[in-house]
Design brief:
The complex is a heterodimer of chains A (196) and B (197).
Chain A: H1 2-11, E1 19-30, E2 40-50, E3 55-67, E4 72-85, E5 98-115, E6 120-138, E7 143-164, E8 167-194
Antiparallel strand pairs in A: 1-2, 1-8, 2-3, 3-4, 4-5, 5-6, 6-7, 7-8
Chain B: H1 2-19, E1 34-46, E2 52-65, E3 68-80, E4 87-101, E5 106-112, E6 115-121, E7 138-152, E8 157-167, E9 169-170, E10 178-179, E11 182-194
Antiparallel strand pairs in B: 1-2, 1-11, 2-3, 3-4, 4-5, 4-6, 5-7, 6-7, 7-8, 8-11, 9-10
Classes of the chains: A mainly beta (196), B mainly beta (197).
């Protein structure tokens, strides 16, 4: 903790380029696909590396869990990165409460669909791209609360569930397929030090 | 049960937020640079089930500045008030940021702490005639919002009272997916140390 304060004191500069931030997040998933009929919830963490006053990058990992029909549920594990572009209000300062941004990025995803309490599940690895927007709320000069919304489009093997009579059947179809969901993320972030 | 729990939570948030509006005694007590910790027993009122869980609860918190702290918490499940425990494991890890109002020795706070729980249903509750397999332990992603109040008695001790709302869903249960939402009330004596001085 002492080292943290020493590093930050010597690294302050007038530009935000090179700033490293750490944070934690909660994510909500909407429209998670057929048979997933509730809002999914998740948690994760991220770090940010600011490249310039107007461009920031975020590197994250999170877990999402969504309930389906009956005992069906789905888990998504994401690891990826995003680029933020600040069209205006790019300086971190509490006097300007909002710092809106546009976001685009990519991630790798591992999806599991399971029937709980039965030894039945299907899994797939896929790649995804995301596009969205959001804003930082600068609580102090170094701390911010970020709210963002993004649409994530997966490209990979199609996995889904369907009901046959009274049972839920899991299916996996090889070959490429597009599938997406809307994600809303709330995160708390704290600036740690300047890398350069 | 859900409405009752939500009402209690809103009531306490309102009370503690309102105390931040009144003038607090300003003195030379500085929070930035403080590290604090405590270990206590915390009850958790389940909102979707008729149960009160009990946890051994510890936290470690650091104030890089007077209005912001970074907080990590762990909850070790010790049982509940039912004849047969609902869970074999139900342990939690949380980490997040907290915003503190006011200055001096008395501060109220509100925080966002994402986390995970490691949960396994008590398999003794399973019927011998059931056709389901024994549920596996599950890692559950959590959303946690906290609020509360601290009072720094001296440079080394403080007392605290905090409320946490935890949201999560257990899928590997004996039936369909179940909510594990809880309100936790935690309080006691903590230790603090000023790292800057």
């Amino acid at each position: 903790m002492i080292l943290f304060n020493i590093v930050y004191a010597y690294s302050q500069d007038s530009t935000d380029a090179g700033m490293i931030s750490l944070g934690g997040r909660n994510t909500f998933s909407f429209f998670g696909g057929e048979n997933i009929n509730t809002v999914g919830t998740g948690m994760g963490g991220q770090f940010r590396l600011r490249l310039s006053d107007r461009v920031n990058t975020e590197w994250y990992a999170d877990i999402l869990s969504s309930k389906g029909e009956g005992r069906l549920y789905r888990r998504d594990y994401h690891i990826g990165w995003s680029v933020f572009y600040y069209p205006f209000n790019y300086k971190s300062t509490p006097s300007k409460l909002l710092r809106p941004f546009l976001e685009g990025g990519h991630c790798f995803d591992h999806t599991e669909m399971k029937i709980s309490n039965e030894n039945r599940d299907i899994q797939r690895l896929s790649s995804a791209v995301q596009l969205g927007f959001g804003t930082h709320f600068d609580i102090t000069e170094r701390a911010d609360l970020t709210v963002k919304s993004q649409y994530m489009m997966h490209l990979g093997t199609n996995v889904h569930a369907h009901k046959e009579e009274r049972n839920i059947e899991l299916e996996k179809h090889e070959g490429g397929a597009l599938e997406g969901h809307l994600l809303v993320t709330i995160s708390f972030n704290y600036q740690i030090f300047h890398l350069w | 049960m859900v409405k009752k729990g939500a009402f209690i939570f809103v009531l306490f948030i309102s009370y503690f937020m309102s105390t931040a509006l009144f003038a607090q005694k300003k003195n030379d007590f500085k929070r930035d640079g403080i590290i604090k910790a405590s270990l206590t027993i915390t009850p958790g009122i389940m909102l979707e089930k008729d149960a009160i869980n009990s946890y051994l609860h510890g936290f470690l918190e650091y104030y890089p500045e007077k209005s912001i702290s970074l907080r990590g918490e762990a909850y070790f499940y010790t049982g509940d008030d039912r004849k047969m425990k609902m869970f074999e494991w139900h342990h939690f890890l949380l980490f997040g940021g907290v915003y503190h109002f006011g200055e001096g020795r008395f501060d109220t706070f509100i925080g966002l702490e994402p986390g995970i729980s490691i949960t396994k249903i008590n398999t003794s509750l399973m019927s011998e005639k059931t056709d389901i397999v024994e549920p596996d332990p599950e890692v559950i992603p959590l959303i946690t919002v906290s609020t509360g109040v601290n009072y720094y008695i001296s440079n080394f001790f403080h007392v605290f009272l905090s409320f946490h709302y935890i949201n999560g869903t257990l899928h590997n249960s004996l039936t369909n997916s179940e909510s594990i939402d809880e309100i936790r009330i935690s309080g006691g004596l903590g230790f603090n140390l000023d790292l800057k001085n």
